[in-house]
Design brief:
The chain has nine helices and eight strands. With 263 residues, the chain is of the alpha/beta class.
């Protein structure tokens, strides 16, 4: 089972560049970087190489989304900003040898129709596919959950899957987040089976709370093992907010990677 840790959310008790090695020592062979603006891309690339970890995923810049704003990916009037931000992300992804680029969520801004936002989102996906045609990284879209983000443009994983299928592009795939699916009230394993052919990356956190496995109501190790049994062979990305110091909450790793987690 290939496990990656988010160095944007986890190991934050350490300086950014130290988190790559900390993740590898904990038992992760890959990392995700959701907040590229927090560090220098060249330095992060060196840190990943020195630690011996694969950069599995980077997020396209989200503009003001994390501050409660609309974001970029499906916001009418911000198409030029999305184009510029994606071009910058594409360069950084190449430098980091990132496997996936998540195009990021957005919200329906006040005064805009959901239909207009969906049309903008599709146009931006089309633009991103064209701009990245000569790269090896795949593009991902993901559904948020309606509890944490009721005004998000995409809150249904099956709608996200429909969008992916409409493009008929192998370089566009679904980012399947166990946490978001569970918070939407669906069974992650059953939902995964329905969209499995287009899933390119899986993320997880316990629910509710979005903390490490063992802090909520999900049996995360069982869920991940079930997805692997169904034939998923990609990366599993730990994308959670540690309830305390990151190392103190890594007991769940033992059931997935065995003795390596102790190394």
């Amino acid at each position: 089972m290939k496990l990656a840790a988010s160095v944007s959310l986890m190991f934050r008790e350490l300086p950014l560049l130290d988190r790559f090695d900390a993740a590898r020592r904990a038992g992760f062979h890959g990392v995700e970087i959701q907040r590229l603006h927090e560090g220098d891309p060249a330095e992060m690339a060196r840190a990943a190489k020195d630690a011996g970890v694969q950069v599995v995923l980077v997020n396209c810049g989200l503009a003001d989304y994390l501050q409660g704003g609309p974001g970029l990916s499906g916001v009418p009037g911000r198409e030029l900003k999305f184009r510029e931000t994606f071009a910058e992300t594409l360069e950084v992804a190449h430098l980091l040898s990132a496997q996936h680029i998540h195009l990021g969520p957005s919200r329906v801004p006040s005064g805009a129709s959901r239909a207009h936002c969906h049309a903008t989102y599709r146009d931006n996906i089309r633009l991103a596919l064209a701009a990245s045609a000569k790269t090896e990284a795949s593009l991902l879209i993901e559904a948020m959950n309606p509890v944490d983000a009721p005004d998000a443009l995409i809150t249904d994983p099956f709608l996200a899957a429909t969008l992916v299928r409409q493009f008929r592009q192998t370089r566009l795939g679904l980012q399947f987040d166990v946490y978001h699916v569970a918070m939407s009230g669906s069974d992650p394993v059953i939902s995964f089976e329905a969209v499995q052919p287009i899933v390119r990356h899986v993320q997880f956190a316990d629910a509710p709370g979005r903390h490490e496995p063992g802090t909520g109501q999900l049996d995360v190790p069982r869920i991940l093992a079930a997805l692997a049994d169904l034939g998923y062979a990609g990366w599993f990305g730990a994308e959670y907010y540690p309830a305390g110091a990151t190392p103190d909450g890594l007991g769940w790793l033992a059931s997935l990677v065995g003795s390596e987690a102790a190394g």
